[in-house]
Write a structure and sequence with these properties.
The protein has about 450 residues and is an alpha+beta fold. It is about 40% helix and about 25% strand. The strands form 5 sheets. A 6-stranded mixed beta sheet has the order 3-2-1-4-6-5, with helices on both faces. A 5-stranded antiparallel beta sheet has the order 7-8-11-10-9. Strands 12-16-19-20-21 form a 5-stranded antiparallel beta sheet, with no helix packed on it.
């Protein structure tokens, strides 16, 4: 049994469920189809038309149809949709290919997806990532086994060289179509393939094995680090529907090296991109040394990290709608998510009671949002800026426009949410008082 067929046999695939194979009709994927046929494995081949080689595509499709017919394999063809502006073509195409593989795998209840990546692909990929900049996660290279959207992806040829694959094709008369773009020096991968990899790997016949061994070690260390990071995130990060948040004080107690790894992972999750992780050091410096209790760190358009005293929030900016000014009438009213009962006893025990001295205010009363310059006459004499009250009570800036401000007809501020009351308002009932009960509810 050849080394190619041995790699397929080692997968121990069952002969009942099919496998989905990504096929370009190049030598690698056509050799994989041939080797699977020798093992009598049921196959569904998936070909994605990228519309980059219009003269070559008919030849590729004809070969796919003929070979699958000869082998008794099913096949599916997908057309790459038009790419939106600002996207990277290779990333877009890669994502679509794997989504297509998964779609067929789920439809056919396949046991796995197989691709024909080999050792030369591995070396080229790692070199490309080094040139463009990468992380330890990227240095792990192409993994022999991975998952995409919950479906297992196997790469049986990852330890075989391109030369071994081509030799198998020649010995077994495997037909394939050579991608004409492989000869172009316009692509970084091709320049590395033609000019760097042969010289590098030619220095030692064990170079491929050494590279793979190193990548396996990196992958093992990455898995261990990922567990540490995940455990730390579970301990310090709070997740809600629209945001992640953490306590700055608690986060800064974490080991400094682990802080960087955790922050890089949070930035990846927040933005969905590895690129944001490059700002890890800047974000950490902002967290460690920033002196403003309320501040914003802008990562990219529409994404920022917000500091509100001790709380650090990773949240997409929300459009904060301030409370509208609404007149309060006797009885019960719902204003946004605030329940108010004025001059009426139909309140519940959960509601906070305020008792307003009628002789000191001008009715009707109103509820509104905080305005810049607001001041309240305090019970102990003198007035105080409402903004100062918010600072003293550590009310986050994002919540200040939602704090209910109760005023009379002359604009005199009587109540600032749960944070302050004027000298005309008491927390206990008395003769000549107008009772007002208030509660925040999820209406």
């Amino acid at each position: 049994m050849s080394s190619v067929e041995q790699r397929v046999a080692c997968l121990e695939l069952n002969k009942v469920q099919p496998v989905v194979v990504g096929v370009s009709t190049g030598v690698d994927s056509m050799v994989l189809l041939h080797a699977l046929k020798q093992q009598n494995i049921a196959v569904v081949a998936v070909y994605v038309n990228h519309h980059k080689r219009p003269l070559q595509i008919p030849t590729e499709l004809a070969l796919l149809e003929r070979v699958c017919g000869d082998y008794g394999f099913e096949y599916r063809i997908f057309d790459l949709p038009e790419m939106g502006a600002g996207k990277n073509f290779h990333d877009f195409a890669h994502q679509f290919r794997y989504q297509s593989f998964v779609r067929v795998a789920q439809e056919m209840q396949a046991q796995a997806i197989l691709t024909a990546h080999h050792a030369d692909d591995q070396v080229e990929t790692v070199l490309m990532r080094l040139v463009r900049g990468t992380s330890p996660r990227g240095l792990a290279g192409i993994r022999p086994v991975s998952h995409f959207d919950g479906v297992k992806v196997l790469r049986p040829f990852i330890s075989l060289t391109k030369k071994q694959v081509i030799t198998y094709a020649a010995e077994n008369m495997v037909e394939f179509v050579e991608d004409e773009s492989n000869a172009s020096e316009d692509y970084l991968r091709n320049r590395l393939r033609h000019n760097v990899v042969p010289q590098l790997m030619g220095e030692n016949e064990q170079s491929y094995a050494h590279v793979q061994r190193l990548l396996d070690m990196v992958a093992t260390q990455n898995r261990y680090v990922d567990k540490l990071v995940a455990r730390c995130i579970d301990e310090v990060v709070v997740f809600s529907e629209h945001q992640m948040s953490l306590s700055r004080e608690r986060f800064l107690l974490v080991d400094e090296d682990l802080q960087g790894l955790v922050m890089a992972e949070l930035l990846r999750r927040y933005t969905g991109s590895d690129a944001a992780a490059e700002k890890t050091d800047l974000v950490l410096n902002w967290l460690r040394n920033g002196i403003k209790p309320n501040a914003v760190f802008y990562i990219a358009q529409n994404t920022s990290i917000i500091r509100e005293y001790d709380i650090i929030k990773f949240a997409y900016p929300l459009v904060i709608t301030p409370l509208n000014k609404v007149q309060l009438n006797a009885g019960m009213q719902f204003i946004d998510n605030i329940k108010i009962v004025l001059d009426n006893e139909s309140h519940t025990e959960e509601m906070t009671g305020y008792f307003i001295e009628k002789s000191m205010v001008v009715f009707p009363l109103y509820i509104r949002a905080f305005l810049r310059g607001d001041r309240i006459q305090m019970a102990h004499g003198g007035s105080k800026k409402v903004s100062r009250i918010f600072i003293d009570k550590k009310v986050p800036q994002s919540e200040r426009l939602q704090v209910p401000i109760i005023v009379d007809s002359q604009g005199q501020i009587l109540i600032v949410g749960e944070y302050a009351v004027a000298d005309s308002v008491k927390k206990h009932n008395f003769i000549g008082a107008c009772p007002l009960y208030m509660e925040q509810v999820n209406k």
